[in-house]
Amino acid sequence: MRKKLVVGNWKMHGSRASNAALLSGLREAGPWNADVAVCVPFPYITETALALTGQAMSFGAQDCSAHEQGAYTGEVSAAMLADVGCRYVIVGHSERRAFHHESDQLVADKAKAALAHGVTPIVCVGETRAEREAGQTEAVVKRQLAAVIHTLTHCIGEIVLAYEPVWAIGTGLTASPEEAQAVHAVLRMQLHAATQKSDAMRILYGGSVKPDNAVSLFGQPDIDGGLIGGAALKAADFSAICRAAG
Ligand code: 13P
Q1: 164 is annotated as an active-site residue
Q2: What is the number of structural domains in the chain?
Q3: Rounded to an integer, what distance in angstroms lies between the CA atom of residue 222 and that of residue 2?
Q4: Coil vs helix vs strand at 226
Q5: Which terminal Cβ of the chain has fewer Cβ within 10 Å, N or C?
Q6: CATH number of the domain residue 185 falls in
Q7: Does residue 100 have an active-site annotation?
Q8: 178 C-alpha to ligand 1 centroid (Å)
Q9: How confident is the model over 77-115, as pLDDT tens digits?
Q10: Is residue 5 classed as helix, strand or coil in its secondary structure?
């Protein structure tokens, strides 16, 4: 039985004051039966670490460099994330693929850099609305995952995978539990062909997860938790989603 994992992706939101209020709300609301983490903007990682000292909640970042170190102005390495205690790093979020032109291979290289430093990459895959309407959903997510499998080889079992249909992110449109499950099953099968650990791997769903749809999504056999955007910014909503995963 896989333990569920719920991860809040704060994206580019927050301030020291609002983060403190949010984390204090979560401290009061927890603990939950699921594993829970927040992925916060880089400048707030250390304060988040302090605020979560002694808590069951983990924290992480939203991106990392594929490079080890060097003259890469503006980049943050996986080693640095490990150094400040990050447990997770999101890589390949559709917003980075779209706005920063990240390729499947770059995403795979970032996942590899994270694993090399003991930080678990949460690798995002997902199709756009046009790709879904063209019947390409399976082909797109399989292509995105294949690059990661090829690059990580025997370490693929160490990642967390997240299926985030691009058309469902921040739109209020959610994949139905059945639609999401169908894609998760395809992804699990692909992982199964690559590693004996596939049954233990967690595949999260992301895209307009809210307290009122979380139970039905998390009830699907291959949905092992969620990657939460907007609803992760409100302590009451995020904690209700964490409860739904318990
Ligand atoms: P929303 O929950 O706001 O749709 O965002 C999902 C997401 O992109 C999480 O990474």
Answers
A1: yes
A2: 1
A3: 10
A4: strand
A5: N
A6: 3.20.20.70
A7: no
A8: 19
A9: 999 999 999 999 999 999 999 999 999 999 999 999 999
A10: strand
- What's the token pair of residue 56? 């069951």
**Angle (deg, nearest 10), helices 211-218 and 235-245:** 20
Distance in angstroms (rounded) separating the CA atoms of residues 26 and 232: 10
Q: In whole angstroms, give the CA distance from residue 120 to residue 143.
A: 21
Q: Does 230 carry a binding-site annotation?
A: yes
* Ligand 1 centroid, distance to 47 Cα (angstroms): 23
Following CA atoms 74, 75, 81, 82 in sequence, which dihedral angle do they give, to the nearest 10 degrees?
A: -130
What range defines the domain where residue 24 resides? 5-245
Annotated binding-site residue? 225: no
- Is the pTM for the entire model greater than 0.90? yes
> Could you tell me which of 55, 35, 28 has the C-alpha nearest to residue 227?
35
The pLDDT tens digits of the residues spanning 211-236 come to: 999 999 999 999 999 999 999 999 99
Q: Tell me the CA distances in angstroms from 79 to 53, 83, 110, 153, one per residue in order.
A: 21, 6, 12, 21
Look at residue 177 in the predicted model and tell me its pLDDT: 97
Q: Is 110 annotated as a binding residue?
A: no
Catalytic annotation, pick one of 95, 127, 164, 184: 164
Give the integer Cα–Cα distance in Å for 152 and 148: 6
Q: For residues 166 and 207, what is the distance between their CA atoms, to the nearest angstrom?
A: 7
